[in-house]
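[09:14] KT: can someone run the structure on this one? pasting the chain below
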Amino acid sequence: MSHANAALTPRARLRLAKLIVEDGWKPALAARMFMVSTVTARKWAARFRAEGPAGMVDRSSRPHSSPHRTPEHLKRQIVRLRWRRRLGPVQIGGELGVPSSTVHAVLVRCRINRLSQIDRVTGEPIRRYEHPHPGSLIHVDVTKFGNIPDGGGWRYVGKQQGDRNREATAKRTGERHARYAPHVGTAFLHTVVDDHSRVAYIEICADEKAITAIGVLHRAIEWFTERGVTIERVLSDNGSAYKSHAWREACAALGVTHKRTRPYRPQTNGKIERFHRTLADGWAYARFYGSETERREALPAWIHFYNHHRTHSAIGGPPISRLNNLPGHHI
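[09:31] RB: done, C-alpha cells below
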C-alpha cells in the first residue's frame, strides 16, 4: 500500500518511468502529465533503469542509522520500572533522568503504554485470546456468595443489625456451626461462559461436588444446543470436581475436550473470573435484598439482561448478538 501522502501508486510510477525510459519522453513533460515534480519523475526513471518494475514498489522510510535512538540498556530500565512498579512516564523519567516524552515513546513501542495492558499480579503484558466461534470453548467455574439472612445483610443494614438478622435466621432454620455460631449458609453458583460470545449460564447449587458440576455441565450443553451452539471444549481450573475421574468420563461421554488451567494461574480462565466480578456488582450486591430467596428470584432477570441487553465492552454489544441466527434474541 502506498504512503497516505504519495502522489503516485506503484502502477502509476511504472507508467511514468516507461514514458521516459522506453518512449523517450522528456522528464519535465512526463512530470507535468502525472502532476508531479521533474525531480520525482527523474527519480522513478532512474530507479526503473536500475531495478526494472521491481523498483517501483514502496520502500521503508526508516533511516539507515539512528544515532540518537534510546540505548537498549535504558529501554530495559524503563520497561522494568513499568512492569514492577507500574510507574508513569513522568515518574520513570524523573528516576532515570530522561525526558518523559522519551519514556512514553519507549512504552508505546513496547505496547505497555496503558496500565490496562499489564497484568496486575505478574506485571507482564496481558496476552488476550478469543476463540473463533461460539461453542469452540466454554469456561466453567464455581463462585460462592454467603446467603443473605432475613432482614438483610450487613452490607446494607450495618454490622450490628446484620449479626442480629443472622441470629434470627439461625433460630428459624436451626442451622448452627460447631461452636453454636449462627449458620446462614453459602450459595454455590456454577457458572458457564462461552469464550467467543460471553453468553453466560448459571445455576445456584448447594455444593461444588463433582456430581453437581457434571449435572450443571449436562444442562448447560443442552441450553447452548437449544440456541444453536455446539460445545467442543471446556476449560476449568484445578478444583477437585474438575480433576475427578467422574468429570473426565462425563466430558468424554459428551464428546467434549476438557482442558485445565495452569496451577496458580487464574488469568488463563480470566473471562469467567471477570464475569464473577460483574455478577457480584450487578446482581449479588447491587441492591438491598430482604432475604436470600429474594436475591435468588432476581437472578434469572439479571442473567437475561446480561445476555440480551447489557453491552459488553470487549465485543461492543450484548453477548447474545454473537450467536448468529438465534430467533428472538432481540426480545
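[09:33] KT: thanks! The first strand starts at residue 138 and ends at 146.
[09:34] RB: yep, looked fine to me
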